[in-house]
Amino acid sequence: MEELSDLERELMLVGRHHLCPGLESCGPGQAAGHEGRLDRSAHLLLSRIDAEGPMSIGQLAEALGLDTSTVNRQTAALLKAGLVERHLDPEGGLARRLAITQEGLGRLAAERARRRDGLAVLFEDWSREDLRQFAHLLARFNARCERVKGHPWPRPPEFPAPR
């Protein structure tokens, strides 16, 4: 089906752009993590903890569909940077949960603002209705991916995942 070929190509191209959500960092040799930016994994992990609250490495691995060793390595970098801290698990035992620090919240907010600023430039000639429709279709696509993979992403009540 030609439409699926078109979608495959366009999704591949979207994946190419994820490293430069803000246009100010899209030059050659510049990637997320450059000049105080959060890299992709840090942004994803902090966003998930922000959405759900403190989580263990095992919970993060399950939620993101990743191996615990990968999440352990990624969260070690967050701990070293002071973006998360370990807390005792309220359910007891030796388990620890990772919580975002004030520094982590500030960096996450700054990253989200940079990404929104970049998107504002990219979509400056789109109508509000086009933006709403695009966001709805992306949410629908993501919700379907999440259902198929079994890893739902928590969404704010004002923006529920479409069925």
TrEMBL record:
One of its GO terms (molecular function) is DNA-binding transcription factor activity. Coiled coil: none annotated. Residues 4-143 form the HTH marR-type domain. PROSITE patterns: HTH_MARR_2 (PS50995). PANTHER family: CONSERVED PROTEIN, HTH-TYPE TRANSCRIPTIONAL REGULATOR RV0880. This is MarR family transcriptional regulator. It comes from Streptomyces hoynatensis.
